[in-house]
Each structure stands twice: as structure tokens, then as C-alpha cells.
Amino acid sequence: MTRFIELAELFEELEKITSHKEIVRKIAEFFRGLDGNEVKDSAYLFLGSIGPAFVNTTLGIKDRLAVRAIAAAYEVSEDEVKRRYARTGDLGDVVFEISKKREASLSIEEVFQRLGQIKEASGKGSQEGKTWLLSDILQKATPEEGKYIVRLVLGRLRLGFGDQFLLEAFSIAFTGDKKHAGKIKESYSVCTDIGELAKALAEHGTRAPGIFSIKPGIPVKSMLAQRVESFEELEARIQGKKAAEEKYDGERIQIHKKGDEIKGFSRRLEDITAQYPDVIEAVRKSVLADQIVLDGEIVAYVELEKDGNRIEEFYPFQKLMQRRRKYEIEKYREKCPVAVFFFDILYLNGESLLKKPYPERRSLLETHVVVRGIVHIARRTVTESIGEIEEFFDETVEKGLEGIVVKSMGDDSYYEAGKRSWLWFKWKQEYSEGMRETFDLVVVGSYYGRGRRKGSFGALLCAVLNEEEQRFETLTKVGTGFTEINAVEINNLLSTHVVSEIPKNVSIKKGMMPDIFIEPAIVIEVLGSEITNSPGHTAGEGEEGTGLALRFPRFLRIRYDRAPYDATTVKEIRYLKNGA
Ligand code: ATP
Which is catalytic among the residues 185, 247, 257, 407? Predict the structure, then answer.
């Protein structure tokens, strides 16, 4: 039985360490000493959660209830807790200040179970129930433990690293060598439950990754597409026959059907079944296989009859975002009608199709999905001729779509889960309009606004992901393109992610310091025109201290469907600059 204090002390230590290698080593050392379920529980806790992303793990305690629980636990007034909160900006720190020293007695298992009970408390009187459960465990906790219990409960652990660090640590802890990290990361793309993965690795060591295969009910990380610079490049990248599919601009959805149960998962692996009851119903009618996993895109869409002709209207992504809600789904179902376009099949009745080439998958997709109502299969053209692909692209754009995805049809055209693959290439209209490109950037800071924007932010400091270092490096300051509505929405989002100092996984040059630091959580799409060398930014900074910068950036939209670790990478930016 491992005590929770060991985990709390490690969390505290990790907050201060910046070296990637050192963090991984410390985590590995910790996991080596755990047994059984502790491995699984701790894997979730390190990521600030009590389960995988595809399960709802929200505990249902917001600041107000936490304040009440803390006041009750330490017999102080709620006002006192609020005052301290206003000063420290962190309820974990408040607990650390006011709780009394005591002997550490809690186990990891006990804390984990208690967090589960807090989540489960529901129905009438659940708020009191949750408050009591939290307050009770705080009374048993040491100041260090209490600090992290409160942060976990509020979903604000903020250790400053993501799942990749854990996977590297598992390689060292459970296989004795970091060289298996690549294989483990691959397994994680297919089995996205980090707790299960950790447990299997602890039990089976190096033999474990092989046992992972896709299972209906557990989402697989999405395969992504590369950008190309020109049609000529496309020709060079995929020789011979290729398929150009329409690119739908909506929300990615992975549909999992297991008997009667049908679920939909987002690209962030969240369960979005409840947002799209119409899609789920339609899939029930169109897809008859008992067990199947499909990959596709939901778009805001209507089909009209005009003078005997069928007319399709595709709406931009922003319209679809109206459906990102928990309440009034039925109302929005009418207000924002959607369709689903499937473009891949990953699993069928007990068999993984990830290692089948795309032509075979496409033909199975066509066999097992009946096109009717709002269920479609991505339209495409198959050809060797780049000229024909250009024509298909022109027709696609004419319809109001954003572009095409060109896919390899080679013998090795597998489904590469979690990869920005060299088997899929996207070509969008904006690429053909000169060097205008879009980037998914992480907001890491904001500057106060002046004049008309007083009281709001003036510009956002945005970063790209350095994949090797798992660090966010600044690329540009975005100050244009915001509508008033965007600005309000962004201000609200920013306010929940303000931190008092630079998060340790963010790198900012001295001269670029923002007025407010924002923890990496918000991803925005930005249009920009040119990548240049810049001494002011840290993106891809070499030894000579020159980073890369994006010129003439303009805000396009908030990308709720992106997590910070899905952002545009330094490697992609370098590629765009140098073309190699
Ligand atoms: P962008 O930001 O350019 O829209 P993205 O960042 O959403 O692209 P990419 O991997 O660059 O993601 O482009 C592929 C995305 O396009 C997929 O994630 C999917 O959501 C969407 N998509 C639409 N139609 C298709 C299709 N026919 N095949 C594959 N992906 C498609």
C-alpha cells in the first residue's frame, strides 16, 4: 500500500523541476514502487483526473463548494477562505496555509476512491454530499496532501506536462529501458486509456504493447493529414493512383457501435454522443454491423429541393459549434441541422482494420454503411492524373467546401492512429491564395487592451508545440481578427486559465513578456502570411538564439476541438519555412 503523501511530495517536487529527462526519471522511479491498482489510479491522477478522457470524470465541485468544504474542514469562516483565495489565487495553496500538521495516513487508493465518491454523488442533496465528502477527507490530510486533493477535485493540478512524459516514464519503469517509449506511444494511440495501459505494462512489461488492439468503446487517436505546398508536391508525394476526397469542415467524430450501444468520440477523445442524438439515430438505421468503428466528420448541413433539383448547403465550422452544449440539445438539433460524412472504417466484428490498406477499408466502408438521410460517405475521385485532382478540387470549392484530402492507395496505406501521416495530404482553398496558411496556436499570455479594447485583452501571445521538448514556444502576437463576440468569449476563457507565473512548459523571451500569463489550455486558429526569423520569439530557437515568427497573424476562431498538445508543431513551421 503506497501512501498518498508520497505522490503529493512528488507532485510538489515536479512542479519545481524543468528538465524533461529529470521529470521522466522521477516519475519512473515512483511507478516502479507501486503495485496493482495503484499503478492505474496514479496514472490518471498524474494527468489530473480519475479516469480516461473518454469517460466523464468531472467531479462536480466548483470553487463555491470547495470554499464551503474547506471552511468546514478547518473550522474557519467562508469569508476567511475567500480572502485567502483572493490573495493566493489557488485554493490548494489556501488549504496548505490553514491546515494543521499531522501524521500522513491516507493511501493513494483511499484518496482515489474518495474522488470517485465525490463524482458519483448525484441527485437531491448531492451538493451537500459532495461538500461533506471533500471536507471529511481534508480533515484526514496533511497540508501537502490537502493542497493536491483540492487541486485534483477542481481539475487544476497543473503539473506542466502531458501524457507523453508518463509514457516515457512507463518505458523506463516497466521495461527497464527508455527505448520502448516509441512502441508504448503507438499502443497509446490505439488504447487511449492511460490507466489500463499502465497496468498492462506493469504486469507484462515489453510484451504488453503487442496485446493492445482497438476495442469498440475505447476511442483511437485520429489519423491526421499533412499539408502540401502545391499540386506538384502532391504528385511527388503520392505516386500512381490516389484518391481525392472532399474535405468537410466540421467536427471529427469516431463512431463506436457495440451491439445496441452507439457512441461518438471527438478528436480530443471526449464522448460527444449526447450532442448529436440525430446522428446516433441515423447511424442506427444505416449501419447494421454488430460491432464497428467508423471515422468521419459531422458538418452543419442542409439538403433542399429547388425546382426539382437537389441542393446541398454546407455551413462553416462556427455554425456547428452551436451544438457544443449540454442543454437544449433538442432545440439546437433543429436550429443547426447536421449530416455525417464517413471516410474510414477501423474495426469490424472482432477484427482490427488498422493494418488493412485504404482501398480495402474504403470498400468495407461502402459495404457496411448505407447512405441515407443524414448519413453519407465522403465523396471522392480516384485517379492518377493531377489534372483531374485539380478539377475535383475546383468543383469541391465551388460547392462551398474548404478543400480536399488526397489519400495514398498503396499497399502500405494503413490507418496511422495518432499520426500526422504521409499517406494523407490536405489541400485547402486558402493555400491556393498565396502564402496564407492557418495555424492552431496555444494562447500563453495576453496583453492589456487600450482605447476601444480597454478592459479586454489587446493581443494574445501565441505558441507552437516543440514536440521533442514537449514545450510551448512563442511564435506570434495576435491582435486582429476578433469580433466583439469572440472577444467576450475569449475573455471568459482566459479568466479561467490565468496563472501567476510562466508555466514551466512555456518558453517566452524577456522582451515579449505578456501582462498576464495563461496556462496552455486554449487553442485558436490563426491565419498568417509568412514565417520569418525573429530574435523576439522562442519557436524552434537554435543555438544562435533566433526563433521563428509568424507575420501578419489574424484570429480566425477558437478551436474547442483541439487540446494544446494537438497544436501546430515547431517541425511543421520549419517545414513551411524551408520546404524540406
Ligand atoms: P484544418 O485545421 O486544416 O481543418 P485539421 O487541423 O482540422 O485541419 P488535419 O489533419 O489538418 O486537421 O486535416 C484533417 C481533418 O480534416 C481531419 O481531422 C478531419 O476532421 C477533417 N476531414 C474532413 N474531411 C475529411 C476526409 N475526407 N478525410 C479525412 N479527414 C477529413
Answer: 247
